[in-house]
Amino acid sequence: MNEWWHESKLGDDRRRRLPPGDMGFPLVGNMWSFLHAFKSHHPDSFIASFASRFNRIGIYKAFMFGSPTILVTAPEMCKMVLMDDERFIPGWPKATCELIGKRSFVGITHEEHKRLRRLTSNPINGHEALSSYLKFMEETVVSTLDRWSSMGQIQFLIELRKFTFRIIMHIFLSSECESIMEALERAYTDLNYGMRAMAINLPGFAYHRALKARKKLVAVLQSIMEERRGLRRGKQDSESKDMMDALLEVEDENGRKLTDEEIIDILIMYLNAGHESSAHITMWATVFLQEHPECWQSAKLEQEQIRRNMPRMQKGLTLKEYRQMEYLSKVIDETLRIVNISFVAFRQATTDVRIQDYIIPKDWKVQLWYRNVHMDPDVYPDPKEFKPSRWNGLAPKAGTFLPFGGGSRLCPGNDLAKLEISVFLHYFLLDYKLERLNPQCPVRYLPHPWPIDNCLAKITKVSATSM
Q1: Domains and their CATH numbers in the chain
Q2: 411 a known binding residue?
Q3: Which residue of 92, 112, 370, 461 pairs with 346 in a disulfide if CB–CB is 3.0 to 4.6 A?
């Protein structure tokens, strides 16, 4: 019934050229099987069911998040969609667009995206910006690790989320007020759980809680922004500025400034991604290293060498040392590949598009399954194995490594995220070890992969080196 209802509008010729697949039940489509796979600890079984029934052709029809959808799971096809900004526009689910914001990167046109990216890239990923963030990152890492080592049993993931949120709040809002950070971090937790849920605005559903969280975030950020405008009137240009200051002042080539809505949506997007993704990847990288002693030793030796080679009078790391962390960079890339924080991306066809022998109909949604690409044994042999060495001399082909997306919509905060993770691992490898209390703990995969005990562990200090 579901197939007949949605395909009958296409006409016989277009219908015959659709890729194989199925559309599940009316209204819910394939969402039950999707949620079952991700909640039963076997997330890859969802796409595997299509591949087993319709062969590994890399493209299938389905019905997801309330829309007829084409699932794209092969590297070459993902690359084609990501690089084609004319025929494919953002097609994120209603829940994501409403919660992150219609003026954020997830919901705007290609031209608007280029403008916002141009205005915000230097304050986030520029050399000067990253250098200015580094000292605060180091100080926060050192003090946080020291505190954790005296706390005994901790939920490592929860503590990491607080840690990464403290850093991102400092970068964007210069805020370290404990009560404000705790309130906002809780709101972001609810927001994140609702972004890939069905847009059911009824009490008890994740989307309903997330909408309330967004309303709270908007109110807080609007209040901070209005207060900041008053403070900036009497502030000298030479005084230090955070990201909100930069967003309030930046102008494009026509003298146009960002609107309040644009600033708030940009901040909500960056603050969410900047602590959720970084915290999860930092946790998994630490866990993987601890589980693979040979990798731990290689990473530790590299960091010890970097520490020994630092000028005697230098206090702390610089971007020069960060760029020498070649093995650690491979550890992070391998963690990004296995964990798949962003396991799928969403587009929408603006016209009929032909891929190989199949058609993607105009206005249909397109899902790019990054997870399937990263776990493809033809691309990455033994894909479930943690092997940083697989990156030795490897330059991934376009479309085969997509942890931060691809094309013109590559995640604009990727350099900041990798810097933050690297600084944490540098100090952890040199001075600490992790002892998980439930190493066989089951993993949940929505909204991100996470152990259900939040990685219950003890952090132990093993040496007393100084900065």
Answers
A1: 2-235+242-461 (1.10.630.10)
A2: yes
A3: 92
